[in-house]
Amino acid sequence: MSPLLSALLSMEPTDSLIALARVCGGGLVTGEVQRFVWDHCIAKDAGKLHAPYLKKFLKKLIAEVELNHGDVLDELYEQYAHFMASLKDSDFEKGNARVFKCISFLFPDGNGFNSCDSRKLMAPLQCSLNMLEGDTGCSIWPSSLFLSECILSFPELFSNKSCFEVGSGVGLVGICLAHVKASKVILSDGDLSTLANMKVNLGLNHFSVETVMSETTEDPNMVKCLHMPWESVSESELQNLKPDIILGADVIYDPVCLPHLVRILAFLLNPKKLYPEKGSGNHLGLSLESKCTDGKVNGTHQGSTDNGDKFQALLPKRTENGATYAGLKKGSMAFIATVIRKIETFDKFCALLDSANLTIKDLTDSLRPFNLLPYMHSYDRTGVRLFAISCK
Ligand SMILES: C[S@@+](CC[C@H](N)C(=O)[O-])C[C@H]1O[C@@H](n2cnc3c(N)ncnc32)[C@H](O)[C@@H]1O
């Protein structure tokens, strides 16, 4: 029943919860399922969950049991009556309230989804209920769920790497990077309220937060959170980052911001700028050879280098769907996950990359992550694409 609990903790739509509850009971919300809901979902976590959401779920659960002429557990009736007396229906709709969700990444085993797998990650997050204007960074976007699944599915790509994320929002990608033991995790956002919320989330996940770049001894539990508007960040600030890997989730949507974002990528992916004294000191072992022409992504793989082969040896032989990691070779790299909402905006991004001497490759099919969020029916992973960007 762990998918049902995970769905409740991540505040999935209540209809999805009922569907999962039915699956648990073999088609009906049985007494056993209700007992589980009470013991594990409500009695234990009622205080942490968003009460109007829980009220809505209980209302549907009770209706479902009654419709099928079942017996509703007394505790569920009592809890619902308590909510009826203390909450109004309109409370759910209320403005920009922040809520706590818990995103559970479940790893498949032979018998379904294993909630005891040591790779499992549960990330509590404070976020906004609605994707309100000006509050975009406090919502969890599908691209960051996808990028998180990639990180947890292919930890060897990120462990012992220095990782820097642009537009980090709630901080979920950073939490996954720290979970797979990236050597350094630097998160950033241009919005101050988003940054404040991100810091809360890192605290909830037991990380300590540093807000300035420093060369001091690295605390493995330390995540850096930087205020970094793309328009104004200076080259000297970027110079300090020296990341092996740059990440971004759902950051390609505003055409006005794109030239600034590409400037950052061009600077950080160009080893001559980051490591002038060392020449072209490639330090990761990854690069790409596809070209971006007229806004179209060309995914042709043109062979590999020795270092590329060395890196390939680190990778699992095959992805979940059997594909290989064709195209991953030597050099620093950016991984950008995005939903392409407007093709013109994406084409503009590709054209800017091309003029900045960067290449882009679509890795969506070759680096397909495990579905670690099987309970999250609201997450449309098919709409997310994963791109890798590197220096030509
Ligand atoms: C759609 S949200 C995505 C948040 C998060 N990466 C996710 O996928 O859940 C875009 C994020 O980029 C940040 N952002 C947008 N424009 C920015 C800019 N010009 N400079 C810095 N951050 C920016 C926003 O504050 C927000 O956190």
TrEMBL record:
Pfam family, one: Methyltransf_16
Signal peptide: none
UniProt-listed Gene3D superfamilies: Vaccinia Virus protein VP39
Domain of life: Eukaryota
PANTHER family in alphabetical order: HEPATOCELLULAR CARCINOMA-ASSOCIATED ANTIGEN, PROTEIN-LYSINE N-METHYLTRANSFERASE EEF2KMT
Protein name: FAM86 N-terminal domain-containing protein
Classification lineage: Eukaryota, Viridiplantae, Streptophyta, Embryophyta, Tracheophyta
